[in-house]
Specification:
Strand content: 25-35%
CATH topology: Histidine-containing Protein, Chain: A
Order of helices and strands: EHEEHEH
Number of helices: 3
Largest sheet: 4 strands, antiparallel
Oligomer: single chain
Amino acid sequence: MEKIVKILNQQGLHARPASIFVKTANKFKASVSIEHGNGVANAKSIINIMGLGLKKGEEIKIITEGTDEKEAMDALVGLVESKFGEE
């Protein structure tokens, strides 16, 4: 399952939202990755996500695969669209 979303929070995917994203991804059995430009990161690793250097306005593709892929996708897209609780 794949979905493209835009990073909306002002500071991009810095340490706090990246940490929230990883914790959420790890709640699911499905494999989760983020694709941006030529890079693909394991979304269950904060080092990999931070390595993408995602900024406000950039689009990412969230990819989930496995038994609970839909639930994982819904939770992660919701996080991004809610700006990780930031303004």
